[in-house]
Amino acid sequence: MLNYLVVPESFQHFPVAGFFTTKQADHDLAVLARHAGVAEHSVYLPIQKHTDTVQIVETVLPPVVADAVLTHRTGLMIGVQTADCVPILVCDPLRRVAGAIHAGWRGTAAGILLKTIGHCSDHYSCNPSDLYLAIGPSICGDCYEVGSEVAEGVQQMTGRGDYLFERQGKPHVDLRRANRQQALAAGIPADNIWISPECTFCLPDKYHSYRYAKGFAGRQYSFIALRD
Ligand SMILES: [Zn+2]
Predict the structure, then answer these.
(1) Which ranges in 128-169 belong to alpha helices (H)?
(2) If you measure from the C-alpha of residue 95 to the centroid of ligand 1, how many angstroms do you get, rounded to a whole number?
């Protein structure tokens, strides 16, 4: 086990390698691929643009614009990059499907998690009750003061919930809890959702944080690969 990885406990029982990196894994894609048991050239990262585009990845091709990726192929490691935004790993151990999602406020407001769950059902006949989620290190609600555009956008997609609250009269959004609420509404059982307690902004020595670095941040990887 590489000691700079955050591994959701729930995923350790499944035939997948799923993990979130910290600052220490910046350029070690080859090491991460080996850790997941895949070839270095079998790593896929989409071009992220805060879209709600979900890409089905069956083979490694030149990257296209997408903010969620899904596969049912073993030997492929797919992922996303984040620094405050919410990374979400998806696994259906029954249908053997794995995915990774980049959910910033725009993706959350656009329902990218819900769209990904929809793709799991449409393309792989997954039942939402069989899906497991791991919500990785990202900015916490206390650290994420937002404008009304963000608060309203997220609430329109998510519905009301305790993910949206005020501190000193300013709206704050906990995007992790917003995505959890969307997942529950889509039929994913609460017991199937793992959430990292760590905040990228609260722990700037451990994680890249876009807000902490005022825009000049690196990125964490969130990767998943199906195993035989
Ligand atoms: Zn925080």
Answers:
(1) 148-158
(2) 35
The DSSP call for residue 166 is E
d(CA 103, CA 38) in angstroms, rounded, equals 25
> Six-digit token pair at 163?
């993910």
Instruction: Tell me, in angstroms, the distance from the centre of ligand 1 to residue 14's CA.
Output: 30
Verdict on whether the full-model pTM lies above 0.90: yes
For the four alpha carbons of 144, 148, 154 and 160, in that order, the dihedral sign comes to positive
CA distance 22 to 196: 13
Instruction: Calculate how far, in angstroms, residue 167's C-alpha sits from the geometric centre of ligand 1.
Output: 13
CA of 138 to the centre of ligand 1 (A): 8
Q: How far is the CA of 106 from the centre of ligand 1 (A)?
A: 19
Give the CATH number of the domain where residue 63 resides: 3.60.140.10
Task: Show pLDDT as tens, one digit a residue, over the chain (228 residues).
Answer: 577 899 998 898 899 999 999 988 766 899 999 999 999 999 999 999 999 999 999 999 899 999 999 999 999 999 999 999 999 999 999 999 999 999 999 999 999 999 999 999 999 999 999 999 999 999 999 999 999 999 999 999 999 999 999 999 999 999 999 999 999 999 999 999 999 999 999 999 999 999 898 877 789 999 999 998
- Within 10 angstroms of residue 27's Cβ, the number of other Cβ atoms is 8
How many Å lie between the centroid of ligand 1 and the Cα of residue 27?
25
Neighbours of 6 (CB within 10 A): 17
The parent domain of residue 174 ranges over 5-226
How far does residue 55's CA lie from ligand 1's centre (Å)? 30
